[in-house]
Amino acid sequence: MRVTLPSGTPAEFARPDGDPVVGLALAADIGGLRPLFDDLCARLAHERRWAVCAPEPFPGRERVPVEERLSSPLDDEQLVAALCEAADRTGCAHVAVLGFCMGGSLAFKAAGSGRFDRAVAFYGMIRTPAPWRSPTTIEPLDALRRPETCPALALLGGRDTWTPPADVDALRALPGVEVVVYPEAEHGFVHDATRPAHRAGDAADAWSRAYAFVEG
Known about the structure:
Blueprint: E1 2-4, E2 10-14, E3 22-27, H1 35-48, E4 50-55, H2 66-70, H3 76-90, E5 95-100, H4 102-111, E6 118-122, H5 140-144, E7 152-157, H6 165-172, E8 177-182, H7 200-215
């Protein structure tokens, strides 16, 4: 169901029957909230018994074309704050953050906030792309170096041009970050089965790792 966070940010919220195992702040990809993520929230609540809250990354700008989003600066402080509000909305003592693409990069950034117990990034950008930089930019590698950073899991594609080998090497060098690379996978190989890049076998393995990491 749709809820409104204290900042006024709309979010999708799903809760299992009974007590949840864990809370999850879910960071959507650059396309923002849509039926794909509504269904994902519901599935994680039903199948994993997680309380899931996914904030809209472009509140008030939901109809802005993806092409424009790719070339517009982001307010990282606001985006991370919304994920922290989503964590509070779950009502759980232990909360993870998980995201895809732009949301995966935000999961890295939120990992350094001190609010989360675990962070999972599916093909999140390891360095902020130049068009997204702004006065509030939080570089993922800097956030992951903070002493309050939670353990993080990065699930990456070996053929993903958004996460080049040099960036992956920099990520691997950080303590507390587990990196898994699927050699033949491109960007977006997990969360949307309708995309040409989807790889069912790699996606299943990545989800299995994410479940174990969040619930560990």
